[in-house]
Amino acid sequence: MRRTVFTEDHEAFRETIRDFIAKEVVPVYPEWEKAGHAPKDFYLKLGELGVFGIEVPEEFGGAGMTGFKYQAIVTEECARAGVSFGSAGVHTGLCLPYIMEYANEEQKKRWLPKFVSGEMMTAIAMTEPGTGSDLAGMTTTAKLSEDGAHYVLNGAKTFITGGVQADLVLVIARTSPATPEDRRAGLSILCVDTTLPGYSVGRKLDKIGLRTSDTGELSFVDVKVPVEDLLGEEGKAFSYLAHNLVQERLAIAVGAYASARAAVDLAVAYTKDRKVFGQSVASFQNTKFELAACEAEVDAAQAVVDRALESFETGELTASDVAKAKLFTTEVCSRVVDRCLQLHGGYGYILEYPIARLYADNRVFRIYGGTSEVMKMVIAKSLGL
């Protein structure tokens, strides 16, 4: 079906991104996979291209656009080529909304120009060992010094995407104890300079997929964070996190749809070219039926994503709406990628084939940003259950 969610400007941007990926990413991507991350100078190239500044006001070096559609195009084009932009998605999709919404003017002047240029890469540190989805159960603490000049940060975080290379990390810490009535109270966001004494990166975690996105463990031992680097109000972090979950989950839904779309395209091309028993794999009825079923699911996922993108643009996308979109598209993606890999036969299990990369990468869609089980809980609550 013809898509109406994108304008001519969006499609012109798509062509720019597609050309950039072909020239700057595809030829060197195997090197990034071996290294476990994209090189730092690549982020400067993204900054020069304008990818990091799309939603940033012009006064801070950005383009001043609104909405999520340009970022959706980046996601779709990366999936189409079977690559990623490393931890760039966290930089723009997760960290930027917090800075834009909750930073004061002095902080924006200090951080946004370097954010836009790629000179300063960011990450967000929520998850702790043993807490998982229970954000209210985090134990990392930030105690205000007696003179009120800084917070003393102590604790640990894990599964932090971009945490190994980040220059500034948005750390969620407990600045006051929780109460029996409200476990979510007392959490704050501190923007931590990664060069501060006591800040350290532990293991770089070796993942099944997303090989070019560095994921690490962080440790804080008496890190002195200036009070000027508190983001928003003290004790309000949980409400801030809940507010941004809609965009985070929308981004995952877009990624899941884009991966499923890419998987079908790869399988169609492969089965047309691959010959067995003297004829193309695509000529067999089973192949046709499998791809037809996958295409129908991808078409439905596209409709869900496009509707969500439009609703997000108008401010109407609710927590339950995006939970439905994430649950549906990630489950579709899992089924479609698996079936498309099967059509590749043994070659589908070989990492030099993009379908293998998609297979490994898509599994986390049903885990991060809220598991499928959490999505079902959100949806059930919206039904009054």
Structural features, described:
The protein is of the alpha+beta class. It is built from 11 helices and 10 strands. The strands form 3 sheets. Strands 1-4-5-8 form a 4-stranded mixed beta sheet, covered by helices on one side. Strands 2-3-7-6 form a 4-stranded antiparallel beta sheet, with no helix packed on it. A two-stranded antiparallel ribbon has the order 9-10. A hairpin with a 5-residue loop joins β2 and β3.
**What global shape is seen?**
globular
Q: What share of residues is helical? A: 40-55%
Count the DSSP helices.
Answer: 11
What is the CATH homologous superfamily assignment of the largest domain?
Butyryl-CoA Dehydrogenase, subunit A, domain 3
Q: How do the SSEs run, as a string of H and E?
A: HHHHHHEEEEEEEEHEEHHHH
Euclidean distance between termini CA atoms: 35 Å
Tell me how many strands there are.
Answer: 10
Biggest sheet strand line-up = 1-4-5-8
Mean of residue pLDDT values: 94
CATH class of the largest domain reads: Mainly Alpha
Give the low-pLDDT segments: none
CATH topology of the largest domain: Butyryl-CoA Dehydrogenase, subunit A, domain 3
| Largest beta-sheet characterization | 4 strands, mixed
Quaternary structure state of the chains depicted: single chain
CATH architecture name of the largest domain: Up-down Bundle
Strand content: 15-25%
CA-atom Rg in angstroms: 21 Å
How many domains, as an integer? 3
* Category by helix and strand content: alpha+beta
